[in-house]
Each structure stands twice: as C-alpha cells, then as structure tokens.
C-alpha cells in the first residue's frame, strides 16, 4: 500500500474552517450502510467557522488560482519513504496536491489492516484539505486479477460481479469508518485498453518479457527497483512468501466487520489513529475497550456542553472569555497543529484534547466551575475548539446524543445484557442500600463493572455508562 504526493503549496485558514466534502451518492451510501448489521453511523464534516490565535510565519503563499493569501504559520513536515528523512512539504504547483493511494483488490471483505491503511490516508487527506490545498485524491480498485478469478471460480460466480460486490462492501466499510471518498476512483476493468497499451510500451522498451501468454516485468532492467522499500534485489528470494490464507495479507488479519460488530466504528477509528501511522500497531481487546471508553468520555462532555448551551440564548453571550479559558484553547491549538504538521502525529493531537476536556467537565460539574464568570462563553468556545479538532481527525458523529446511545448499545452487547436487565440490577442495588445491605450493594456494582458497566451515583439517582471491564483495567495496570 502506498501513496504518492505531488508537492504543492499549503495554506492555513482558521482551525475551525470547514473541509470540502465530496460524498458520491452520499444519501444512498448512508442508507445502505445503516441497513446492514455492521453499519451504524456516518457523518459529513461540519461547517463551523471561527478564529484561532496563531503566530505569523515568513514567506509567501498563493492559492489555487495564483492569488496571494496570508502566509501559513504551521509548516507541514512529512516522512519521505524514499529518502528516509522527515522533509518539509513544498508544493510544485501552489495550492494544489495530487494524492494517489493504492486501492484494494476486490475479492473479499476488508479487514483491520485495510482499516488502518485507509484511515491513515483519510487523516492526511483531511489535513491537507484543512491546510487549504486543493487536493485531487485518486484511489483505484483492482477489480480484474488472478485472485478475483480464482475466488469467482470457487464460488461459481462471474468475476466482474464478484469484484463489484466487494467494491460496494468496501465503500460501506469506508463510510462506516468516516473515510471521505476520493476525488477519483478508477477501476482496472474500465481502463483495460490503456493498461494493454502501457504493457506493450514496456515490452517494446525491453523491460518485460512473455512466458506462455503472461507478461513479466524484468526488475533487472530497472536499477531503482527496491529503492522505495529499502530492500536490495538479492534479498528478495523466490518461494519464501507462502501465505497461510491467500485472502489475508497477514495470518493474523481478520474481517473488519467481526473489531465493528461489538464496537462503535469511531472507537475503531480512534484506536487506529491513537498510534502513529508509521509505528507498529498491536490490536488487543484492552486497547479497543480503552478507545471506546475515551470516545464516550469525549462525546459525553461535548453533549453535556450542548445541553447547557441550548438553555441560553446565543445572542445574549458576550464576545469575551476568561484568560484561563483562552490560554487553554491556545495551548490546545498550538499543540494540535504542531503535532499534526509534524508527520501527522495523531496520538499527540488526541492527547492535546485532555486539558480542554477537563476544563469543560469542571465548568459543567464542579461547584467552582459552575460559579465561574463567563461560564457559558467558555463552554461555547471550548466545545467549538474540540469539535474542530475532531473534524480534522474524522471523529465527529452525526450527533453526540446518537453516538452515546450507540456506544451504550455496543457495551450492552459485549456485556451480554439488555438495558432492562441493567436497570433491574440498579433497582436491586437501590433496595440493598435502603436495607443497609452494603455487601450486596457492592457485589452488584462489581458484578456490572466486571462486564464493562459502570454505575454512577448522584443526588438525582443512579445511572450507568460503558466502562473498561475490570479484568482489562487490571491488565492495563500490570502491562509494562
């Protein structure tokens, strides 16, 4: 899997500027996604606007039509696989980027390996858009291939129909993971004439040969072969790549619909971008539980903010916020932009949300926070700032309320409980507490906590929320 970037020129609008979104047949895609068991939600980017305090940088920038624009403060640095160096992203054509990503060979369902690849490139696509580039994102489909023909023969199905079906499944999975569609999505089957002409040119140039009707590229004729991967030709010995299952890139890979039947799609996305795209990622149940728990925390804080904000007329809000809130927001924006512009360090960008989220919860739930001056204005600014970061990372749901409901439903499924059964346990615990049967009360709490259901006591009564199961919490504590 690879991506090619044509280096064009970045621009920097405000952090909360909208991203251009091009969903092909968006309504149809969303409806189809919602109608199959593993598809639950999809959202487009928001159109919120705002300003950000960012220091000025030197240099000139122009937009796509050559007009001069305000200079971007945050320069984008990316790892160059060819040079093995972190390099400044310098565009060839001001304001434009050409981005090519190898697509799937459509002969089976997607697995978590595909999810990681395309979520990583989606983050890059979103960030380039955010920086102001006009991005032409091309992602192909290999829908004619020996593997496809072999699978079609196994299933006694027409190869083109089989590949079309898996292309459609891939689209649903990408929508499920909030991956924006590419600008162009060519298919091999639509370009056979061009491919044949290109192969003929390679043969004519003496860089390929035929055996029994098959055409083979001669790597000896291409001295640069292996330079991108860093492997020498003599290191590639034939006959050593024997896959356990030809449908899998790795024997440990598993179908994507199996990491999303039990977990919210955005929890999976959060898990994937919680590791830098060039670092190894180790899937464990504990890690996906942690991502799900974090996502619930983020959405709950933002949903609670929206509830409070809806109770106050926006027109009555003042134009200023306390110095402490402004400092928190500026610190987040600086850390977020620096980390994203440093080879897309998404884990650092996610970590930067901790302080503004904590401040939101303080303003919502602590006695001191509720009494703070310009509290409503602070909540509005903080919620907007966090949401803008989530937009860039592709983590904004259709609605916080809906996402919270879905996260709760998934947690009940993992716990093998229903909402009524949890409420019955809460009633039993309330009765035990009233009868001063505290051991029984504690036992019920621990019983639910063991399967990932946390009880929350308040003056208004007891509610519940998803949590990391106790055994997995203990596993995380003892992990090196």
From TrEMBL:
Keywords annotated in UniProt: Ligase
Top-level taxonomic group: Eukaryota
Protein name: Cysteine--tRNA ligase, chloroplastic/mitochondrial isoform X2
């Amino acid at each position: 899997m690879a991506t090619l970037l044509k280096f064009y020129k970045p621009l920097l609008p405000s952090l909360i500027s909208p991203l251009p979104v091009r969903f092909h047949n968006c309504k149809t895609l969303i409806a189809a996604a919602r109608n199959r068991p593993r598809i639950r939600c999809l959202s487009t980017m928001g159109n919120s606007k705002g300003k950000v305090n960012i220091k000025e940088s030197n240099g000139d920038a122009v937009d796509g039509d050559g007009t001069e624009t305000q200079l971007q403060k945050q320069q984008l640095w990316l790892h160059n696989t060819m040079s093995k160096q972190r390099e400044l992203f310098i565009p060839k054509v001001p304001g434009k980027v050409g981005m090519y990503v190898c697509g799937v060979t459509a002969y089976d369902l997607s697995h978590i390996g595909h999810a990681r690849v395309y979520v990583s490139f989606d983050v890059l696509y979103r960030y380039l858009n955010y920086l102001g580039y006009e991005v032409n994102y091309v992602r192909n489909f290999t829908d004619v291939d020996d593997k496809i023909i072999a699978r079609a023969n196994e299933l006694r199905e027409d190869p083109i129909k089989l590949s079309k079906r898996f292309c459609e499944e891939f689209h649903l999975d990408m929508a499920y993971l909030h991956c924006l569609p590419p600008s162009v999505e060519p298919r091999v089957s639509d370009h056979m004439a061009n491919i044949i002409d290109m192969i003929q040119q390679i043969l004519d140039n003496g860089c390929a040969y035929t055996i029994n009707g098959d055409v083979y590229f001669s790597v000896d004729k291409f001295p640069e072969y292996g330079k991108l991967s860093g492997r020498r030709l003599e290191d590639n010995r034939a006959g050593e790549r024997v896959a356990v299952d030809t449908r899998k890139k790795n024997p440990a890979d598993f179908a994507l619909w199996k990491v999303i039947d039990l977990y919210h799609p955005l929890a999976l996305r959060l898990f994937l971008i919680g590791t830098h795209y060039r670092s190894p990622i180790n899937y464990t149940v504990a890690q996906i539980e942690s991502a799900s728990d974090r996502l619930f925390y983020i959405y709950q804080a933002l949903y609670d903010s929206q509830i409070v904000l809806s109770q106050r007329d926006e027109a009555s809000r003042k134009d200023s916020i306390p110095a402490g809130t402004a400092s928190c927001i500026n610190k987040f924006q600086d850390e977020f932009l620096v980390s994203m512009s440093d080879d897309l360090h998404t884990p650092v960008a996610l970590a930067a949300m901790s302080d503004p989220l904590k401040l939101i919860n303080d303003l919502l739930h602590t006695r001191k926070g509720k009494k703070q001056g310009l509290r409503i204005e602070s909540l509005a600014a903080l919620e907007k700032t966090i949401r803008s970061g989530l937009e860039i990372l592709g983590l904004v749901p259709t609605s916080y309320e809906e996402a919270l409901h879905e996260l709760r439903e998934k947690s009940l499924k993992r716990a093998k409980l229903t909402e009524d059964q949890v409420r019955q346990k809460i009633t039993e615990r309330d009765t035990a507490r009233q009868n001063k049967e505290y051991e029984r009360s504690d036992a019920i709490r621990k019983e639910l906590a063991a399967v990932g259901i946390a009880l929350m006591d308040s003056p208004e009564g007891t509610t519940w929320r998803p949590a990391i199961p106790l055994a997995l919490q203990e596993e995380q504590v003892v992990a090196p």
